């Protein structure tokens, strides 16, 4: 089974430009601004909603004890901030339909 190729940024920009009937330069600029706003808002408020797709969420992870897999030695893992993406239910159901009972 042949592996499908992923959509590149250039292909995405081209498709947005065609659908919105704008120049590729404008479509690329819009995409860059959207990404910039997503990063800024997630950093500032801890959450950014991408309408119809999902949300970016910043979470605090507590410090914890872990184990070095090579030696088995216990190590301390410090607290840190992580970013997660939560997919909207409608998108998840469209991509992977729920099983029928």
How are the SSEs ordered, and which strands pair?
Blueprint: H1 9-20, H2 24-45, E1 47-50, E2 54-61, E3 64-67, E4 74-77, E5 80-87, H3 89-95
Antiparallel strand pairs: 1-2, 2-5, 3-4
Helix pairs in contact: 1-2
What does this structure look like?
There is one protein chain. The model has no long low-confidence stretch (mean pLDDT 92). The chain is extended and about 60 Å long. Strand 3 and strand 4 form a beta hairpin. The longest helix has 22 residues, at 24-45. The relative contact order is 0.11. It has two domains: 9-45; 47-101, IHF-like DNA-binding proteins (HU Protein, Chain A), CATH 4.10.520.10. Helix content is 41%, strand content 28%. The chain is of the alpha+beta class and 101 residues long. It has helices spanning 9-20, 24-45, 89-95; strands spanning 47-50, 54-61, 64-67, 74-77, 80-87. The strands form two sheets. It has a three-stranded antiparallel sheet. A two-stranded antiparallel sheet has the order 3-4. Helix 1 (9-20) packs across helix 2.
Number of domains: 2
How much helical structure, as a percent, in the residues? Answer: 40-55%
Strand content: 25-35%
Computed CA radius of gyration, to the nearest angstrom: 20 Å
Helix and strand string, N-terminal first?
A: HHEEEEEH
CATH fold field value of the largest domain:
HU Protein, Chain A
Task: Please give the CATH class of the largest domain.
Answer: Few Secondary Structures
Name the shape in a single word.
extended
Which class best fits the helix and strand makeup?
alpha+beta
Report how far the terminal alpha carbons are from each other.
30 Å
Output mean pLDDT: 92
How many individual β-strands? 5
The CATH level-2 architecture of the largest domain is identified as Irregular
Taking the sheet with the most strands, its summary is: 3 strands, antiparallel
Across the major sheet, the strand order is 1-2-5
Task: Spell out the CATH superfamily of the largest domain.
Answer: IHF-like DNA-binding proteins
């Amino acid at each position: 089974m042949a592996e499908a190729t992923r959509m590149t940024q250039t292909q995405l920009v081209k498709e947005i430009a065609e659908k919105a009937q704008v120049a590729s330069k404008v479509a690329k600029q819009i995409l860059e601004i959207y990404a910039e706003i997503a990063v800024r808002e997630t950093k500032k408020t801890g959450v950014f909603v991408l309408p119809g797709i999902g949300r970016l969420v910043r979470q605090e992870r507590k410090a914890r004890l872990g184990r070095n897999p090579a030696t088995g030695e216990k190590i301390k893992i410090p607290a840190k901030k992580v970013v997660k993406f939560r997919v909207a239910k409608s998108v998840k159901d469209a991509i992977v339909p729920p099983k029928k009972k």
